[in-house]
TrEMBL record:
<dbReference type="Pfam" id="PF00646">
    <property type="entry name" value="F-box"/>
</dbReference>
<feature type="domain" description="F-box">
    <location>
        <begin position="1"/>
        <end position="46"/>
    </location>
</feature>
<dbReference type="InterPro" id="IPR001810">
    <property type="entry name" value="F-box_dom"/>
</dbReference>
<dbReference type="InterPro" id="IPR017451">
    <property type="entry name" value="F-box-assoc_interact_dom"/>
</dbReference>
<protein>
    <submittedName>
        <fullName>F-box domain</fullName>
    </submittedName>
</protein>
<dbReference type="Pfam" id="PF07734">
    <property type="entry name" value="FBA_1"/>
</dbReference>
<dbReference type="InterPro" id="IPR006527">
    <property type="entry name" value="F-box-assoc_dom_typ1"/>
</dbReference>
<dbReference type="InterPro" id="IPR050796">
    <property type="entry name" value="SCF_F-box_component"/>
</dbReference>
């Protein structure tokens, strides 16, 4: 029996397990498959839930005005890394093309990238080219952070953008289906955010570091977009402060934190068990404990990418050389007997490294508006 002779439902079920990057190449097979991959929100969501996640390291640098994919080779004696070409350009006719955005930040959420600067917000699916520009509103933009999240309603993702400041309790929510901003209550009552730039998304929820009002406990906060409330997520151990902290996601399944209690302690990488969308019962496991050079330390906005199986991390734009300004370098750190055995510097890299999962997920539109795609 050939593929055209198989039942339609069976073909779709098989395609749900094909990696997203491969499905993109199959779009030209026939018009029906092209429509299925481009326009069917039901299939896109089903595929995201069932297909194996292709978790790729993505970096934005001051030398590349569009985020770039990286190829990491861990075979052989000497690990190597190559910064590949830009993942995809945004349409050149847009009023604020990403190549003209100044000092923009990137936030990843389930295959979509939220890119923003002080004047514009872009939500972008690099795999399909679909994008949507959003106005930041009339609020002051200095010190403002934007993150993307969603919740499921009748198995359909409902997207929102959360906006908050590092120096006040002012917070807003943008709803995609109504195309509007609205004020909300303080997102973390009784807590203050330690570093608003260190936020990650996992299964639609946003996670961030926070300090309680008594300044005796550092924890994670999980922001739930269905209730628009924050939930406390304890770290592996209690402390009133850490010398170093950073947050990441592993294969869209687990949280990962980088912690160092003080300068004399090892830098530790912890991961959670796989999380679910309904329950937040987490246990932590330590996967790395590194004795790093005393001349290297994690900077305020440091970010990292964890290869859990091979116990290797990449750390970007967060490392300071002693007595120097922050350098635009990327480090690859491996473990051997709980010690860092290799630290490599890649000249010319910089700002931040992200976990990126290619996806067919479509961007929610305001009622009555058509989607825009960069072909």
């Amino acid at each position: 029996m050939t593929i055209p002779e198989l039942p339609k439902d069976l073909i779709e079920e098989i395609l749900c397990y094909v990696p997203a990057t491969s499905l993109k190449r199959l779009r030209s097979t026939c018009k029906e498959w092209n429509r299925l991959f481009k326009d069917d929100r039901r299939f896109a969501r089903k595929h995201f839930d069932k297909a194996a996640k292709q978790c790729l390291p993505l970096i934005s640098t001051k030398y590349h005005n569009v985020p770039c994919l990286m190829s990491l080779n861990l075979t052989g004696i000497m690990p190597s890394l190559e910064v590949k070409s830009k993942i995809r350009r945004i349409d050149s006719d847009s009023k604020h093309p990403i190549s003209k955005m100044k000092n923009y930040r990137v936030f990843h959420c389930g295959g979509l990238l939220l890119c923003y600067d002080e004047s514009a917000i872009l939500v972008w699916n690099p795999l399909t080219g679909e994008n949507r520009w959003i106005k930041t509103g009339n609020r002051r933009d200095k010190g403002r952070t934007f993150v993307l999240g969603y919740y499921l309603e009748d198995e359909k993702p409902c997207y929102k953008i959360l906006s908050f400041y590092s120096d006040s309790n002012d917070s807003e929510i943008f709803e995609f289906n109504s195309d509007s901003w609205r004020f909300i209550d303080d997102i973390c009552p009784g807590w203050s955010l330690l570093n608003p730039c260190q936020c990650v998304s996992l299964k639609g929820n946003t996670y961030m570091f926070a300090l309680d009002e008594t300044k005796t406990c550092v924890s994670l906060l999980k922001y739930d977009y269905s209730t628009e409330k924050s939930i406390l997520v304890p770290l592996p151990y209690k402390s009133h402060c850490f010398e170093e902290t950073s947050l990441s996601v592993v294969r869209e399944e687990k949280l990962s934190v980088l912690l160092q209690r003080d300068k004399s302690s090892k830098t530790e990488i912890w991961v959670t068990n796989e999380t679910t969308t309904k329950e937040m019962v987490l246990s932590w496991s330590k996967v790395l404990a590194l004795d790093l050079s005393p001349h290297l330390e994690l900077w305020y906005n440091g970010s990292f990418f964890l290869e859990e199986e091979k116990k290797v991390i990449m750390i970007s734009n967060g490392w300071l050389e002693e007595e120097n300004e922050p350098e635009d370098n990327l480090y690859i750190v491996g473990e051997d007997a709980n010690k860092a055995t290799q630290v490599y510097t890649i000249d010319g890299c910089g700002s931040a490294v992200y976990n990126y999962v290619p996806s067919l997920v479509q961007i929610e539109r305001a009622r009555g508006k058509r989607k825009r795609v960069d072909s």
